[in-house]
Amino acid sequence: MIVLIIIKINLFLDGKSFTDNISQLMTVHASLCDTVTLINAAYGVVALVITITCLIHLIITPYFLIIEADGRREPLFLAVQGLWCIFHIWRLLMIVQPTYAATTEGKKTAALVSQLLSVSPDREGRKQLEIFSLQLLHRPLEFSACGLFTLDRTLVTSIAGAVTTYLVILIQFQKEDDTKGNFDNMLKNATQMLKNASTLHNITAGRLGLN
């Protein structure tokens, strides 16, 4: 409460400088939005390629790690595969985390402007804050990969869900192939046993006929 009173007094005593500061912040935010637009245009394809490669590697590497983790492989191989998984996760976070931090700061700015609107006694200052609030609403900080998806932490959860789904499907197909292979081997063995039994029967019948 005391902090709000102090803010009100400062705004009342220094309304002109406050208005100028808001105008400067609006200019800085506009420049920042233009910079983000240029970054999206220049590095959108790069971010898209890196994201797709991370998705593919995060599917293939854990798949082979799970398939080979049956005791037949050396622990060094499993450790290397695990390190590759960690590396691809780190590579994805190196793209997502900075963009998420910038977006979060933009949302904090919008919240602070809303709080200032409720304590500013200056009419001109309130007008500038309202304009700034509209600018924050219509021009948010948003990083994207060619406009296909936004680069934030929700991308991590989406990739995690996709990786889990594909791993389950691939492992099921692998088990079905193994089961089919075992069934084919059993069928071949049974056929061979029948052939051997038939041959033995013919030989036995021939000998009995000769006798």
Automatic annotation (TrEMBL):
InterPro entries: 7TM_chemorcpt
Topology in the lipid bilayer: Multi-pass membrane protein
Domain of life the protein comes from: Eukaryota
ATP-binding recorded as keyword: no
TM spans (from-to): 41-64, 76-96
Keywords for this protein: Cell membrane, Membrane, Receptor, Transducer, Transmembrane, Transmembrane helix
Single GO BP term: signal transduction
Localization per record: Cell membrane
GO cellular component, one term: plasma membrane
Protein name in UniProt: Gustatory receptor for sugar taste 43a-like
Species the sequence originates in: Pogonomyrmex barbatus
